Structure formats: structure tokens, C-alpha cells
Amino acid sequence: MSERNNHATVAVTGVTGALGGRIAARLAGHGVPQLLVGRSPDRIPELPGAQRRGPAAYADAPDMRKALDGASTLVLVSGHRTGRRLEEHATAVEAAVEVGVDRVLYVSLVGAAPTATYLNARDQWLTEQFLAGSGIRHTVLRAGFYTSTPAALADEEFVVSGPASTGRAAFVTHDDIADAITAVALDQGPRSEHDGATLEITGPEALTLEEAVTRIAAATGRPYRYETETLEQAFARRWRLGMRGDQIETWISWFQAIEKGEVSLVTDVVPRLTGSPATPISDAAWWPAPKTARGTR
Ligand SMILES: NC(=O)c1ccc[n+]([C@@H]2O[C@H](COP(=O)([O-])OP(=O)(O)OC[C@H]3O[C@@H](n4cnc5c(N)ncnc54)[C@H](OP(=O)(O)O)[C@@H]3O)[C@@H](O)[C@H]2O)c1
Questions:
Q1: Where is the NAD(P)-binding domain (predicted)?
Q2: Cys bridge to 212: 187, 207, 219, 225, which one at CB 3.0-4.6 A?
């Protein structure tokens, strides 16, 4: 085990992305030695006390073993949806165990369940089950729906359209999620109260999409607005935009999960783990540009 300021080494994946990059920056700020793992090493951030490791995709066992060698804890940020995400995550976890990693912090999604309405939450549940059966010490960190997603889903006129009706979601910022996960990663004793736990990381309140989008408009000074769609309208508009069937299905299911109240739970995980209240949507520090949500182009 390599040590810097008496911290054990943490490997973080997804560091070229919005969440993993934030977690890595926070751990570096706490003086934690890190292995930053990515598929494109030239895009991995340079941080104090961190080695850049890769290229390593989750599905590539030898590359993952090489990238994770020397870590005690693995922060595994869930990968993009491929249809084989369980197998990819399982390969990454098995590679970690083979090189001596003894704790995995897995970033899952709120509402993860085999019958979840949001299709992306189903294989997150599969990975959670794999971890539960693997015997490795682990914590599941279920991230709430991102505050940033409605802004990224807007069209060039700043309109967010979808079949969410008046359902609610407890949108949470990337920064709050990163703070909460960092707190768990810093709890580096031989045992932690978070071992075996599933922590649902949510924002401070459950908002309808109309409320959320109205607040994004006020926060950004841009004319964002929400228009509810029927299922038929939701399909037809996305089909005209040239989206693939699986993309249409996945995004419609995102709105429907909100409509059905499957992502509306508000927890105290952010204040309990970070000591600060969860950030209201109006105070979010980062807004992506319209039309930048994955799988909408
Ligand atoms: N809670 C929510 O509302 C929500 C919304 C969207 C996504 N998610 C999930 O949360 C994850 C993190 O969110 P984010 O905002 O940080 O997404 P992001 O900015 O797209 O970053 C995803 C990161 O995961 C890496 N990655 C993806 N698939 C991989 C694979 N098969 N092997 C190795 N690395 C892989 C990406 O690497 P590259 O840079 O090489 O692509 C990137 O570094 C997403 O990947 C997704 O599973 C959650």
C-alpha cells in the first residue's frame, strides 16, 4: 500500500468525466494518493499525488489490472450504457480484486431496480447485485438525477420537452455527489459504517420538471421552459430528430421515472456526509449547453 499523508491509495475511474473528475480533484485536495484511470490517458487530469493510468476500459481485464495495481480502494464510476454494462463493471471489479484492492465504492443510480422505469437504472441494479454476491467490501452510492440534465436536454430554443407530467425528482448537483463520495472514500479505517450500505445521494427537495426548469431559467438568465408531452408526441418528436430506438426508449423512460415518482425521494445523505446542506437547483455552479445530453443527437 503506497501512502501520502497517511492515506491509502485510491483508484478513481471516469476521471475524464464530470463526476469522476470532481471526485479526483477533491481527493487530491485532501492529500490522498490516487491512480486516475481512463480510456484516454491524454485526457486524464494532472493532479498532485496522482498517477495517470490507462488506457483502460472496464471490459479489458488485463488493462484494468495494470491500471489498478497498487490501489486499496476503487471508486468505480458507472460507465456509459452499452447493453453489457454489468459484464464491464464485473470485469473491472474482478480485476481490482485480483491486484489486491479490498474496497469498492460503486457509483450507481437512484431507483436502481430490476423493474425500474428508467432503463439505465436496471443494469445499475445488476451491478449492485454482483457486488453484493462478490464478497468484496463495498458501498453503493446511488446518485440522484443530475441537476444539469434538464439544461442539457433543452433544445436550441431552451425548451425541455418530455412525458414527466407533474411528477417530481430530487435533482442533485455533481458537486454534492462528489463531496458525499469523497467523504466515504476518506473514511479509510479497516472498517467503516458505510460498509455494505446503499446511500441514496439526493438534492434538498423534490421538484416537478416545470419547477426545476423555471429555476434553471432564473439561475442562468436564459429562457428555459418545460413543455409536457404525451407519449405519442415524445416518440414522434425524437424520431423526427433522428434518434435511435434505444435512445428514444431510454430518454422517454427518464421522464416517466419522474412522472411515476421513482426518483423523488429526498435523503439526508449529503448533509450527513458533508456537513453542508444539499445545494438547491438555483445555486448549482455548472450548467451544460442545450442539446448536449448523451444519446439525444
Ligand atoms: N445520476 C444521473 O443523473 C446520471 C446521468 C447521466 C449518467 N449517469 C451515470 O453516471 C456516470 C458518471 O456521470 P458523469 O456525469 O461523470 O458522466 P460523463 O461525464 O459522461 O463521464 C463518464 C466517465 O465514465 C467513463 N467511462 C464510460 N464508459 C466507460 C467504460 N466502458 N470503461 C471505462 N470508462 C468508461 C468515461 O470515459 P470517456 O471519457 O473515455 O468516455 C468518462 O470518464 C455515467 O457514466 C453514467 O453511468 C448518471
A1: 14-186
A2: 207
